[in-house]
Automatic annotation (TrEMBL):
PANTHER family: BLL7967 PROTEIN, IRON-REGULATED INNER MEMBRANE PROTEIN-RELATED. Keywords: Membrane, Transmembrane, Transmembrane helix. The keyword Membrane applies. This is PepSY domain-containing protein. The chain crosses the membrane at residues 147-169, 190-213, 339-359. It comes from Methylomonas fluvii.
Length: 374
């Protein structure tokens, strides 16, 4: 195949993969901008609160008292999870539902982990950030929406590969990063599109790949739940159920003793789909930027507070857990978030310039085709 024919093939791949996914990628970039600063925006809008400043207070609240307070605020409901906060150890949250295994959340309460003080009732399934997240994650269409966005992410990756090949063709005789000012405006837009695209290539590829991984989070967790977690809890199925109220504190303490260098991410209560009929399952996280993104499940008997099992997550689940912070840039504090903001804006410029180039090419070709037909 000649060089010209090869160029046409790569050009066709780049053009059509880009055109198909551009609208979706623009939506993801625009909704991703506020999600980079989701925590800061929720704090500013009053939908969440920061932990009260008590720098010298090293106490730990009574977990069972917090659970009892949450249940008193929602009589008839059941606690599903006790949730920790990797970035703010002074906060604990309690998630409630109509039953322990219900997929619907009835309340999410925030507490001071040092003295048990009730701080805030987190609004559920509403607000600006929730709207942005649902559009970004599944287009309000559940798993089919997530898989559609995943397919668009794969097209983006194909567009990046083909665009890199085309950049070599376009700039073979020019210095790297050249933007030719002589000539038509379309030529300048083409050089600018190429420059911004190649400058953000690695970031776009990383965000695209981690985004694709995140779109299959539900089936990945479901597979782990149906295999590894089911195997951990299999010996206890069929046992008489035990209510977790009044037993959570001892269970959490036992889990932390079994993994002294870890902290609580969340703990599922007995009867929950992530726990046994009379067993808590505490999901613990490490204390470094990397290990804080990974989880280790620990099974604890609710009646005796005995640790029954502890197991590492499989590699495919670890890959999923690591992909989320990489995707949103929320593992390196505010400076990294600001960098993600800048790169996201550049990605929007790449997408918009690509659409402009396609429209400009059509405007140029239509008179030529009409002239040839005449």
């Amino acid at each position: 195949m000649s060089a010209r024919s090869t160029f046409k093939v790569w050009y066709g791949v780049h053009q059509w993969t880009s055109l198909v996914c551009t609208l979706f990628m623009l939506l993801l970039c625009l909704t991703g901008l506020p999600l980079i600063f989701a925590e800061e925006i929720d704090l500013a809008l009053g939908r969440n609160i920061a932990a009260p400043q008590r720098p010298d207070d090293q106490r730990q609240a009574d977990v069972d008292a917090i659970v009892a307070d949450a249940l008193a605020r929602r009589p008839g409901d059941t606690v599903q999870f006790l949730v920790g906060d990797a970035e703010e150890p002074a906060l604990w949250s309690v998630r409630l539902g109509k039953t322990a295994a219900s997929s619907d959340v009835s309340a999410f309460y925030l507490y001071d982990a040092r003295n048990g003080e009730f701080l805030h009732a987190v609004p559920l399934d509403s607000g600006f950030i929730n709207l942005m997240f649902r559009l970004h994650y599944d287009l309000f269409a559940g798993l089919p929406g997530s898989l559609l966005l995943g397919a668009m992410g794969l097209l983006l990756l194909a567009s990046l590969v083909s665009g890199t090949v085309l950049y070599h063709y376009h700039m073979a005789k020019l210095p790297f990063g050249s933007v030719r000012r002589a000539g038509s405006s379309r030529l300048r837009w083409l050089d600018l599109h190429n420059l911004l695209g190649i400058a953000t290539l690695v970031w776009l590829a990383m965000v695209g790949l981690t985004g694709v991984v995140n779109t299959v989070a539900e089936p990945i967790f479901q597979r782990w739940q149906d295999t590894e977690l089911a195997a951990m809890l299999a010996p206890y199925q069929g046992q008489a159920p035990v209510n977790g109220q009044g037993r959570a504190g001892a269970a959490l303490a036992a889990a932390l003793r079994a993994a002294p260098d870890m902290a609580l991410s969340f703990m599922a209560f007995p009867g929950n789909e992530f726990a046994g009929p009379r067993q808590f399952v505490a999901f613990l996280q490490g204390n470094t930027p990397l290990t804080s993104q990974l989880l280790t499940p620990v099974v604890i008997d609710a009646a005796t507070s005995e640790v029954l099992a502890k197991r590492e997550l499989p590699a495919y689940v670890k890959a999923l857990l690591l992909s989320k912070p990489l995707h949103f840039g929320n593992y390196g504090g505010l400076p990294l978030k600001c960098l993600w903001l800048v790169l996201d804006l550049i990605a929007i410029a790449v997408l918009v310039s690509g659409v402009y180039l396609w429209l400009a090419l059509r405007r140029w070709r239509l008179p030529a085709v009409a002239g040839a037909a005449a």
